[in-house]
Each structure stands twice: as structure tokens, then as C-alpha cells.
Amino acid sequence: MNLRFYTIAMLVAGFLSADGITQTLEKYSRKSISCVDALLVAGNFKLSPAEQQYFLEAIRAGIQIARFDYNTLPENIQQSFKRQLAIGEYTSEADIESLINNTLVPEIIKILDANKEIRAQSLVSETQRNSFIALKAKEIGITAEQLEQVMNSSYIYIPFIDAYHEKWSKNKKEVDVRIEGGLLWYHVITAENPRVEKFAKISSAGTGSADSEEDYKIDAERVNAKDFAFRNAAQTLATNLEVKIRELDMFKLMAPISEVYRHNIRFPLGRAEGIKLDAPFFVGEWVQADNGKVKLEKSGFVRVSTVSENRRAPGQLSQAVAIKKGNWVKGMMVVEHPRLGIDIAVKPRWLTLKIEEGAFQSDKFAVGFENFNGGVAGVDLDFQCNIASLTKKRQSFLVIGGTGAIVPVKSRVCSRQELFNLFDIFKISVEREQENSFATYFSGHLGYMRKFYFGRFALHGETLLGAQGLSIGGKYDDKDIRIINVSVGGRVNIGLEYALNIDCNVGVFTGYNIFAPMNIWYVKYDEKEEDITNFFAENYPKISSVGSTLGFYIHFSPPAIPFNPFAVVQKNMKSF
Amino acid sequence: MQRILIVILLIINNGLFGQGNLPRAREAVLLESSSPSEVMVRATGFGIDRKHRKPKAKTLDKSANNDAKKTAVWFVLFGGSDPLLQTDGEKQKFEKIQEDFFKTDNIHKYISWEADYYDKRLRIDNGKMLKVEKTFKINKSLLEAELVKRSIIIKPASISKLVGMPTIMVIPETTGDIAPLELLKIDPDIKKGAEVIESYLTAKKYTVIVPEQQQVLQELTATQYALGGVEEDYSYLLALSIGSDVYISYNVFVASRKIGSSTVKKAVVGCRAYETTTGRLLGTETGYSRERLAPNPALIEEAMNDAVDKVLSRISNYWKSDIKRGVQYKMIVSVSDSYDSDEAEDIIFKISDLLKEIASSLKENSVADYTYDVLIWVTPEQYPSATDIYRTLKSRYNGAGSVKKISISRKLILLSVSDE
User: Fold this and answer.
1) Per residue in A81-97, is it b (16+ CB within 10 Å) or e — as a string?
2) Are A358 and A536 in contact (CB under 8 A)?
3) What is the maximum alpha-carbon separation in chain B?
4) Helix (H, G, I), strand (E, B), or coil: what is residue B245?
5) Which label site among A312, A325, A381, B121 has the fewest CB atoms less than 10 Å from its CB?
6) Chain B neighbors of A326, CB-CB under 8 A
7) Maximum alpha-carbon separation in chain A
8) Which bin fits A137, alpha (ψ -120 to 50), beta or left (φ > 0)?
9) Rounded to whole angstroms, how far apart are CA atoms A44 and A161?
């Protein structure tokens, strides 16, 4: 219930924020960040030191983004801060601020001072580079203002966890971990009275699940189910927080457009700022309203098609392709639209399914399926993770998803004797039986998808491999029974989409399913697995899905999700 | 009714923007004098699109960009404290050609550099208008040459080929404890200041006199002697001795402060131009560098560029108006005290009458019992040098005693009248 509620809430929040407006006229200028290995735990729960350490590392790795310079605080200073924090005297936010002022700020100022001249070089404007001081005097031309800007563009964050839930299933097999936490952000003021001022508190949530009977490996380390769930939750939370940081006005990337050529624009941001292939940007211009307020009026959006290597050669331009093209000219602004890089696609579709009549038996009961051959309505739910940074191909996605459908096929579970006597499992009514008019169809798939945009339209093609299952269940002799047939196969889809807005595409698709019948059965009775054999000369029921499929398509790019199946993959993609 | 409204709107629109090729925005600021021939200007441009009911971004942008260019050139012509067009006559002459001059194709010629990005870009007036701010470098020399070519302004040198550009002496200000020439030797910042001004002057084709100790000291003593009653001003005396038309005195101050462990400095220079013969202040300007991490010479040059360009503009204006009267000389005639006061007065009257014949214009500074201090303007064709004036005066003088020279420099004629 909780998970569903948060998912919906986050999706809605993301949708509403899709048209958020920023109010800064300037191009993004680099900020420097300090962090300390300390975690504020605010709540009636305890985390082990190892869990705390993992959480801190996940946060640090999660928000290590290229648009920031990092001020590494000396270990002894960090230790001193942690020791004082651990004493427990610092409970309120004001206390923490005071502790930061006393222990960390002097050290941050030293680091800023040592690096300011190098960092200020990136602030030298085009006009300065063409002024007397640069051209004739051959000086870099850094001004006092720019040094002060560097000194005053420093921030520090302190991670916190304010809720932790660990929930085991009744049989103690499955565990769900949910972490709620975030970051307290402080601005370092380097005036006469150096201090920090809190300017933002961002928070999110992450969940993870695991099965205690499984073996798990994460970050090249074997871990138990609870640790696996914890780590997944921490990674998810860190990924969500990264997006939230990028959404803060002072950290949001923006730049003027340098060139507009047909459907392409070029702009002065690149690897130095950490932009990635396919990253979405709004395009717009600053408009002054009658009341004097200035706001960004968006007129379309683009996706990055070439990322410039501006770390070595400053001034290089990245390129983006217009998805929704406006009346654009040089000088308008591109403004980042921070997203996870994961699209959630919902695809109601029609698929064909064939079930050939058959039966099998265990030593307690017999199972029979009727014939079925026709189409059923199902729904795909896919997570599409953009892996363009890895593949170096625009609009390439790793897809993980599943399908669910109800199949109107009759099936019956009854005693072997009765079935033996009567020989017609489907026509004769018997005393002890479980008859189902429907079966549940489900499948899970993993695949690769590519999209090709033509303005707001996009053609997509995907290849999926996976497993499908047909399941019936109920009671037999007052005990739970579950019968699942499994087969493996694949599917190819092609589709046509239309970008409704920067976050949402709708479209249609068609494809072909190839899931041949397989005699793989999973039968569970009274919580125990049952062995099955042929029922005399009867064939096993043959369940297959071979044929075309077609459906509708809608995807949405959320700013945060509580459960991120790609959290670990995304963490490892950061370096690309 | 609707038609009337449209007509009214069109009239209003035409009234506001119907300026043909002239710039609409006319808001600009001088960022720096990058070199003697270039100035860097940040100009505003307004973009409008009359053709479409819903303005097209491309049209607005092009229009705003062109308007900013025009405004930048307009600023050099008319704006700021020292525009190229200064007199009403010059402005009236320019008005006749302004439509043609502000054609976009023509304006491009004077823009030697423009920024790739706007400093500011904002849609205003409910999105109907685009306001941009952009930085340009304007080739002021080329612009000036074009105005001279079109006979809008007159180049000082062209007024009198015989006189040419004024001769200017550059000297640092001192407090009196130390001689300026000594200061030039011992203070590298002061020396740098002189170099920058001299570089500017030579680039603008002025004749620059660099005072040298040995040459001037003896002249200085004589001048000092002759101007016994004048307040002791080393620069003034030196300029008179050397004979510059104008002298520029300057001071340099470099302020510094710490930002963390870095020392940032800001140079402030004061630059004053004087008419040599009278010591009249022609113009004064203060120049500032940005506060930077840079060595003193670079900062001093940046600050001096800021100041000297404006001062030179004022010297040029002075010269243009003064040269029309002829070449100016300061003459001091000292009458021997062997004459009684009545005789001395007669001598001074005779000298005065003679000078009125020689000079095209005359201005008396002081007439004492035995001293006559006067400024004269003579036509350079008739009197190419100070000696010619002296010779004429001497030959035509028929009063008591005879006219003798004490000292003659390029601008100062020191004479005496005595029996000997």
C-alpha cells in the first residue's frame, strides 16, 4: 500500500514539476561542494556502523556530479566533527549549524582560498578575453569579483535519515527495507564573519526488497537479504537525491544557445558540467511581465545529441536535437530538466495465446486444461533505463518489465481416482474439485530498445527476451494450490510515439511474440512443491504465445521513484 | 471604429519607432578604451517586427542585434562625456547624412569585434519587443576618419598644415619634495604612466616632448627668473621652458587588498591637461582599472587607457578651437627700471600697439609698472616661429631703448627693453 502510494505521489509530483520555472538569468557557474562523513540519524531506530558507512558512500557517489568542484576536508577535521556530533549535544538544526561553523568552515575557507585562482579562470567572460587586459597585457584577467564569486559559491551538505522501516514477511523469507532521508544544504558565507546558512533541505525515499533464500551480490560483495535490500534502498535514495539537487535553482544547468541550425542547437555546456547524451533540456527565453517580474517562457525542448569535451578545451559546444521545436534563435536559453534517466512505460496490448487441452497428475490430484486459442488483453509495465552514455548511441535503453493478463481458459483440479474413473475431466462434475474459468498470464522480460526521433514523433524498436507463465490457483481439499506453467521466449516490437511533453510520450506499437510451449511446471500444494507425471495417455497441456501483438504506449519520465531496478547500474554508469 | 484604432496605433508606433535607420535604444556604456583606436562598448538594442502580428523570433533577434550595433556606434558619435561630434555645427552636418550613415551595412565597417553571446536578452512589452545588451569593439579611428572624409568634423592637423598637431609634454605630478623628472627615474609605476600616455599620444599623431633633465634646467632657471611673481609650479614652468602647447600631468595610485591569501590590486590614475601658456585646465579625468590579480604595469595601463582617451579628446577640441585664432605665444616684456614709470608706460603702450599689428588676436594677462604679460595669436604662415615675432617686434619698435631677448622657447618669448 505504502509503496504504491509513494510511487503515485512521486509520479504526480514529477508531472507537476515538469513545467517548473527558474528565475536566474545567468549561465550556470561552477559551485564547490564540501561533504563530511557524518550522518544525522533522526528517529527511533538504529543503523549499524556498516550500514551508516554504506549509506554515506552511496550518497557521496550518488551526488558526485561533474558540475561541482569538490573541497576535500582533511580526515582529522572530519573525525573531530563526527566525534562532536556523536556526543549528542547537537540536536537541533541551529546546533548543527553552529558545529559546522566552528569545526568545518575555517577549513573550507582554507581550501577555497588555495583553489580560488584556478577555479576563477572558468568565470572569465568572453568580453574579458577580448579586453585590453587579456589581449595586450596577456593576463588572464581574473577580477576580484570573480575571486569573491568563487569564495562565495561554496556549499556543504550533511546527510540525514529520518525514517527507517524493515519489514519481514510472515514466513521470514522476504524482507522490505525502506529508507527516508535526505540532505541538509548549507551555503558557506566567507564574509568578515565566516559561517554557514542553511538554504535547502531535500528529502526522498528509497526501497529495496530481497528474499532470504537467495544469494545476493552487490558491489562485488556477497551480502545477505537484508543488506541487499538496504543497499538497494540506499542507492535508490541517492539516485533520487541527485535529481533533486540538480533541480535546485543555483545548481541547475543553463546556458545561452550559440547556434540554431535546422532542428539542432548548440550551446556551451559539456562534460565539464556533466551533461549526458539524451539529457532533456527546455529551450526558452526570459520574458518580462507587466509587473516587472522576469520568467523563463519555454517554447520547446531538446535532447542532447553530442556532448562536447569542454574539460580540456573550454568553450566547445554540445549539440542537441529539437523534439518540440519552437521559434528559436541564438541567444535564447537552454535550461536543464533533471530526470533519473528512467522512463516508466505502460503498454496495454492485445496478445495471442494458445492452450492445447491436456492433463497431468501428482500423487494427490490431477490437473486438466481446456483448449483455448485467441487474443487476450494484457498490460506491460516497463522500466526503460537510458544507457546512451554506455552505448554511445542516442536513445538506447535497457528495458526491464513485465506483462500481466487474464486468460479465459477453463481448468480443473480433482482427485486422480475420479479423473481415472470418469476419464473426462471437463465434462463430469465431481465432488472434490477446483474449477477455474480464468488463468493469470504473466511474463518478465529484459531487452534493448532504440528510438529515432523525427521532431515530436519517434520510431522505436525493441527486442525482449524473457519468461512467461500461466498460473491457476485456489483450494483443493481446503488447502492452497498453485499451478504455474513456464516457458521462455522473446518478443520484438516496433512502435510510433508522439512526445506530448518533455516527460511523456504516447504511441502505438505492434510486435511478435515467440514463446513456444514448454513442459515446465511449478506445482505447489499446501506450501509444498509437488512432483507431477503424465496422466495416462493424456498429453500435458501445451501453453504457448506465438503470434502478433499490438497495443498502445505511454511513457513517463519521473524525477524520482521509490524502487529503482537500475540504481546499481546507474551508479556504475556515472563514470561514462 | 476598429480602422481608426489601427490608424492611431500605427501613428503611435511610427512615432515611437519610425526613426528610419537611426538606433532605437540609445543606451550604452563605455567599458574600456582598449587601444588608441578602439573602444569597447556595451550597447542595448531593441528588436521589433512590424511585418508579423505575432513577432518572429528571428526577425526580432536580427533587428535587436542591428540596433545594438547602431547604438554602439551612436554612443561613440554622440554619447558619453567625450563624443566625436561635439559642436552643434558638427551635429547639424551629421544630421544630414545620418540616415545613410546608420545603414546596417555601413555600421558593420566600424565594428572590429562583437561578443558571441548577449550580456542580457529579454522579451519585453508583452513579448512584442526584444531587448538585448551586447558588447562591441568600435574602431573609433576609422569612424573619425570617415567623419573627416565626409567633412563632418575637421581634423586638427588639417586646420593648419604649418602648425600641425599640438605639442604635448607629459610630466608626473609631485608634491614638491621631489622633482618630477627624478620621480620618473625612481618610480616604475610613474614611469609606466608616462609611457602609456606617450604611447597614446604618438598613436594619435601628437608630437610628444619628453623632458630631459640636462636640456631643460637652464631654460627653467631663466623662466623661473622671468616669472618671479608666479606661484612656483614645476610642471607649468617646465612646459613653458620646453615650449609645449599643452602639458599633461598625471598621478598614479595602486590600491591593494587581500582576498584570502591573494592580493588584488586596483590602479587609479588622475590625468590633467593644461594649456601651457596660461596654465588653464583643459580637462581632467580619473581612470580606474578593474580590481584584479595582475601586476602594476598592466593595471596602470588599463586605468590610464580609461583616462587618457577622454583627456585627449578634450585637448583635441581645445586645439581645434584655438588654432583658428592662430598660434599662441606667451610674451613677457620686462622694462628696465632705469626708466621712470611714465616712460615705462609709454614703452609698454608702444609694445602693445606693435603686438596688435603683428598678432591676429591678443589677450593681456597683466600690465604692471615695468612688466607686460600678454598672450598673442599669430598666423603661422606669417610668423612660423617665435624668433620671427621677436625679429619683427625688434625691427619695428621705435620707442625708448631697444628690445632685447632674454629667452625664446617654442611658446614663451621673454624680452626686455633697456637702454643698453
Assistant:
1) beeebeeeebeeeeebb
2) no
3) 99
4) coil
5) A312
6) 57
7) 106
8) alpha
9) 11
Cβ–Cβ below 8 Å for A331 and B117: yes
B112 and B199, same domain (yes or no)? no
| pLDDT in the model for residue B242 | 67
CA–CA separation, B326 and B277 (whole Å): 14
| HEC string for B336-365 | CCCCCHHHHHHHHHHHHHHHHHHCCEEEEE
Contacts of A126 in chain B (CB under 8 A): 115-117
B117 contacts A258? CB cut-off 8 A: yes
One domain, residues B206 and B333? no
CB nearest B135 (choices: A127, A285, A332) = A127
State whether B47 and B85 are in the same domain. Answer: yes
Report the mean per-residue pLDDT for chain A: 85
Q: What is the pLDDT along chain B (420 residues), one digit of tens a residue?
A: 455 544 444 444 444 444 688 999 999 999 988 888 899 999 999 999 988 888 899 999 999 999 999 999 999 999 887 888 888 889 999 999 999 999 999 999 999 999 988 999 999 988 889 999 999 999 998 998 999 888 888 766 565 555 667 888 888 888 767 777 788 888 899 999 998 898 888 888 888 877 754 455 555 555 555 555 444 566 666 666 667 788 899 999 999 998 888 899 999 999 999 888 777 788 899 999 999 988 999 999 999 988 888 888 888 888 877 777 888 888 888 888 888 889 999 999 999 999 999 998 899 888 888 889 899 999 888 888 888 999 999 999 988 889 988 878 777 888 889 886
Same domain, B173 and B306: yes
Are residues A133 and B302, on separate chains, in Cβ contact within 8 Å? yes
Residue B318 and residue B333 in one domain = no
Domains in chain A with CATH codes? 2-247 (no CATH), 254-336 (2.40.10.410), 342-556 (2.40.128)
Amino acid at site A14: G
The 3-state DSSP class for residue A153 equals coil
A259 touches chain B (CB under 8 A): no
Range name among A79-83, A164-168, A326-330 with the lowest pLDDT average: A79-83
The residue out of B272, B297, B322 marking a domain boundary is B322
Provide the shortest C-alpha distance from residue A325 to chain B (in Å): 13
- Write the residue in A114, A132, A297 that is nearest to B305 by C-beta: A132
Q: Give dist(CA A226, CA A219) in Å, integer.
A: 15
Looking at the complex, report in whole angstroms how far the Cα of residue A331 sits from the nearest Cα belonging to chain B.
6
| pLDDT, tens only, A419-468 | 655 445 555 455 556 678 899 999 999 999 999 999 999 999 999 999 99
> Residue B323 gets which letter from DSSP?
G
Q: Where are the beta strands (DSSP E) in A431-478?
A: 433-436, 439-454, 457-476
The total number of structural domains that make up chain B: 3
Angle at A135 between CA A131 and CA A137, to 5 degrees: 100
User: Does B200 lie at the interface with A, CB-CB under 8 angstroms?
Assistant: no
Q: Of B147, B172, B194, which residue constitutes the final position of a domain?
A: B147
Record: contact A132-B32, CB cut-off 8 A? yes
Judged by a CB distance cut-off of 8 A, whether residue A118 touches chain B is no
Helices (DSSP H) in B102-212: which residue ranges? 104-108, 140-149, 156-159, 180-186, 188-203
pLDDT at A323: 96
Residues in chain A with CB shorter than 8 Å from the CB of B136 are none
More confident residue, A572 or A91: A91
Q: Does residue A413 surpass a pLDDT of 90? A: no
Q: Which residues of A touch B261 (CB under 8 A)?
A: 113-114
For cell 576618419, name the residue.
B145
Q: Which of residues 103-142 of B touch A (CB under 8 A)?
A: 113, 115-124, 126-127, 132, 135, 137
| Complex prediction ipTM | 0.77
